[in-house]
Amino acid sequence: MKVAIIGGTGFLGSHIVDAMLEAGHELSLLVRAGSEGKAQSGEGIRTVSGDIDSTSAIRETLEGADAVVYLIGILREHPKHGITFEKTQYQGVVDVADIASELGIRRFLLMSANGVEAEATAYQRTKHEAELYVEKGDFDATIFRPSVVFGDPRGRMEFATQLHQDIVRLPVPAIGFHTGWNPFGGPVLMSPVHVRDVAMAFVAALDDPATIGQTYELGGPETLSWVEMIRRVAAAVDKRKLFIPMPIGLMRIPATLLDWIPAFPVTRDQLTMLEQGNVCPDDALQSLTGRQPKAFSPENLDYLRV
After folding, report:
1. Which residues of 139-174 are buried (b: 16+ CB within 10 A; e: fewer)?
2. pTM of the model
């Protein structure tokens, strides 16, 4: 099958490209100027240079394709550089979907996120609106909502690597986020899922008619607390961490004042989503891939030793 991938140079995208090639698909990648070095090359891959706001580049990427995979997503906006949730997570999907429809491409796989809501953070709202736009279009669509994704970052941003760099490697106690205001408030919970498992879910769904019209929540085999995830990251690099309990509500005070600064580690919206948690079961992932998902374990985090 000929597959157009929008967002194929990112962390998850690079792994999906590998999985698609292994399955024998021919790929067309939209590659932003300056990111050519991040794109895989070789037999079975065609690259098109252009940004997500270039309709001509989108059209060139999609021409001749049998299916479209949209993967672009960001965790933080940089409006001065034109990087916003609205542009990347909603308007980009609209433009790609409209052109795909014009070209008669019906198969559409969309990367969304676990916990999307209509009335929530800008991140969640734009993901939700993108889902609705694809669902109301004349597509054979499949939507994926993963929890936090981990795995070999290949030089990109990745969850466990960020925990290691921002928390574990520093010679100070780690912040132990919790809900509520007392020191023993509720844990922040997530279901970390391995990038290879998510990539294989995309490949499995592409050729399976039973996945058309379905939305899949993709979680790993365990639900872990924020503190336990940091402990496992630390164990992967042979370290131990002490923790300082931190109510998320208290962290909102400096975030409200300083999250406009790119160097500030967390935004108000990220704190809101952290408080909500990011939990989902692994049964959908197992049914798609036919295998036990990889755990967020020190053994599967050994790439942090590099």
Report:
1. bebbbbbbbbbbbbbeeeebbbbebbeebbeeeeeb
2. 0.92
